[in-house]
Design a protein that fits this description.
Number of domains: 2
CATH class of the largest domain: Alpha Beta
Number of strands: 2
Strand content: 5-15%
Radius of gyration: 17 Å
Helix content: 40-55%
Distance between the termini: 39 Å
CATH architecture of the largest domain: 3-Layer(aba) Sandwich
Largest sheet: 2 strands, antiparallel
Structural class: mainly alpha
Order of helices and strands: HEEHHHHH
């Protein structure tokens, strides 16, 4: 299993772009030497590929409507929700619910979240709604 730290290292090495076409949407980690052939989950056996290039490498047909996503809504529908989140109108829990993400999913790992941050040039952010709610919980 690929750890989050290893995935981040691979993303950093490949500049969050597909190693083949340079796309930065729907990125997946690909094993150079497949695990079925004793390949490892080590950093030096992994490359970053977009869903399309990954499908081609595995001789699969790429269907843009069935890309493996961590959300069940389209990016265009997610934008108003993320606008509210980044303007501190709603918190992480409510954002995950509106994006149809599992409560266990880290919002920062969602592809729509990453795309929104990239397109809006957001580097550092902490949702004040969540900070206020956590202070309330600690005072109870």
């Amino acid at each position: 299993m690929i750890t989050k730290a290893t995935r981040r290292k691979v993303e950093l090495f490949w500049n969050s772009q597909c190693a083949i076409c340079g796309s930065n949407d729907y990125l997946e980690v690909h094993h150079i030497i497949p695990k079925s052939e004793n390949g490892t989950d080590d950093y030096d056996n992994l490359i970053l590929l977009c869903a399309c290039c990954h499908a081609v490498i595995h001789n699969r047909t790429y269907n843009k409507d069935k890309v493996k996503r961590r959300t069940s809504i389209d990016y265009e529908l997610a934008v108003p929700i993320l606008d509210k989140y980044f303007s501190n109108e709603i918190g992480t829990k409510e954002t995950k619910e509106k994006l149809n993400l599992s409560p266990k999913t880290h919002l920062s790992e969602s592809s729509v979240y990453k795309r929104y941050k990239r397109e809006h040039h957001i580097e550092k952010f902490y949702n004040n709604v969540d900070m206020i709610n956590s202070k309330r919980r600690s005072n109870v």
